[in-house]
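User: structure tokens for this one?
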Amino acid sequence: MMAGVDGTYDVVVKSPLGDQKSTLTVKSDGNSFTGTNSGAMGSSDVSGEVNGNTLTWKQQMTVPMPMTLDMNVTIDGDTVNGTVGAGAFGSFPLTGTRVG
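Assistant:
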């Protein structure tokens, strides 16, 4: 049986630079997970914490400027909702759907 948060998701972040689309893959192991997040800005290996159906991790961004993003997403069935914290630039909504 697939764990509740494991899978592949098409996600979109509503940012000042327009909609940033990416594909997030998640494989959980207890209260941690590994995966990738790949899109127009490149591909990143990601890893972080699992708390129930909420994932948190930090992700490096290089374009348009180097920055560490604070990612926080909740997976409810096949739906993803969350926020991307971009330091002084504030926080932006993230939404998505499980595709695999």
